[in-house]
Each structure stands twice: as C-alpha cells, then as structure tokens.
Design goal:
Layout (H helix, E strand, L loop, with lengths): L10 H7 L5 H17 L3 E2 L4 H5 L4 H12 L3 E3 L2 E3 L1 H30 L4 H6 L14 E4 L6 E4 L11 H13 L6 H13 L4 H11 L10 H15 L3 H5 L16 H6 L10
Antiparallel strand pairs: 1-3, 2-3, 4-5
C-alpha cells in the first residue's frame, strides 16, 4: 500500500541521532528516507542504486555509505529502517480502518434504501402526506452532504393535485413550509378578493408569490380604495387633480356635503 505524501519527521530525535553527520551526509540521508517513505518499502542497494537515490556520483557515494549504513538494518541488498517501518505500518493500519469504516457506512445506507414498491406507496398520488411543523434533514445517497426535506400540510379539499404540487414546489424554493396558519391567511385574503382558494394559489404560482394579499389584485385594490373613499367621504380623483385646496382644508381633501353634515356627530373633521 502506498504511503501518505507526508513523512512524520520527529525533529528532536533526528537532530539527536545525526549530530555527527556532515552537510553532505545529511542531504544524502534525508533523500534516502524520503524515497523509503514515498515508495513504502525498503531501499534496494543493488547496482549502486542508492547513489542515484542520493543524487551522488558513485565515487562520492562510497565516501558516505559507511556512515549512513549505521541508520539501517542491512538484509542482503535491502536496507531497512526500523523507525520508518513502524510508522508505515501505523499509517497503513489507519488507512485500512478508514476504508473498512467507509464500506460499512455504504452498506448501512444501502440496507436502509427504500425499495421500488415502498417508494410507490410513499408517492404524492394520495392526500396522506405526513405533516410536521419542523424541517427534517436526510443524508443524500452517495454524497456526504445534507438536503432540506420540507413536510407540508395535506392538500386541502377543492384544490387540484397538480396545483398543490406546484405551490409546494414554489414554497420549497423559497424555504417556506406550508402550515395551517399560512394557508388560513391565504384563504382569508382570497375571500376578501372574492376568489376561491384555488384561484388564489394559482395567482401565487403564476406570479411567484410566497403568500397572497387581496390588494395585490388590481380589481380588488380599486374596489378597496373606492370603499375607503366612501367611508371617509373623499373624492380621490379631486385630490389627484390638485383641486379643493384652501386654507380651511390645507390637505386638499374634498369633503362631501353628507360628510360635513355628519361631522357634528363626533366624526373627524378635515382641515379643522
């Protein structure tokens, strides 16, 4: 098994063991142990191969070979290093443990993977989705990352399944779970606009709205503005045209005669 690309060099131990080496011998020794670690096996001294590993000529190698032999155990043509062999054995053991753990994890995920029959019963063809207020996280198969799995309330009666699926997808994209409270708010605003819940949800899907407000619909907004004008007794068009402004009414609000006749009964008086 190949060793890791880094070597565990204990500086204090190295300096204590090599205090007697020359600069040239230091360089040759380090190149030898680097090659040993990188290849993950003892050095082969046959045919002056170690001279090539140490980046030295054969003549220069003979001058340092005797000194460097004391750091190795010589077994024929093989030079063994006790410390490096122990470190390699420990690294290989750790790699094997990680490999076995990864295989066990993969097998565990496979054993919990739903079958085709199970997936068919868990589909969206029926209105039996499990509802929870919280978001749950499940591990994506084959990847070490998490994905968000939102659980919405069941499809309400009278709403087409495809329309409900589209609205859920829209809410998922915006990271918003459909709750009883949020759906009740949409229903309330739909009633104000004189629309069904399905029509309001369709508007949300077509316009990319996360929620729904009656005043967002142009016809409904105009109706609400007219209702407000009737209650306050003002003419919005007169205000927009800049008419009706005087010192008794600095806001430029045109008050109807009927509104003025009722002002004496405790109602708000404009411009007073």
């Amino acid at each position: 098994m190949a060793a890791l690309p880094y070597i565990q060099l204990y500086v204090a131990d190295y300096l204590a063991d090599t205090a007697h080496l020359t600069t040239e011998e230091h360089g040759a020794y380090l190149l030898l142990i680097f090659n040993y670690w990188q290849r993950g096996q003892p050095l082969n001294a046959a045919n002056n191969r170690l001279a090539s590993v140490a980046r030295m000529s054969n003549e220069r190698w003979t001058t340092v070979e005797t000194t460097l032999r004391e750091f190795f155990q010589i077994d024929g043509d093989m030079w063994r290093h006790k410390r490096i062999d122990a470190d390699l054995a420990r690294v290989n053991e750790q790699q094997e443990q990680r490999s076995q753990a990864g295989k066990a994890s993969a097998n565990a995920r496979k054993s919990h993977k739903p079958t085709l029959v199970q997936r068919s019963f868990n589909g969206r063809s029926t209105n039996t989705d499990t509802y929870t207020e919280t978001d749950t996280y499940t591990e994506t198969e084959g990847k070490n990352k998490k994905r968000l799995n939102r659980r919405h309330i069941p499809r309400p009666e009278g709403v087409d399944q495809q329309l409900w699926d589209d609205f859920k997808a829209l809410r998922d994209k915006q990271r918003a779970t459909i709750t009883e409270t949020s759906l009740a708010g949409i229903q309330r605003e739909a009633n104000k606009a004189g629309m069904s819940l399905s029509a309001a949800l369709r508007e949300c899907c077509e316009r990319g709205w996360r929620g729904f407000k009656a005043e967002w619909i142009p016809d409904t907004r105009n109706a609400l503005e007219k209702q407000t004008d009737d209650i306050l007794g003002i003419d919005r068009r007169t205000i927009l045209n800049g008419q009706g402004s005087d010192y008794s009414n600095p806001a430029g609000v045109a008050v109807s005669e009927d509104r003025q006749s009722r002002s004496g009964r405790g109602l708000v008086r404009f411009g007073e």
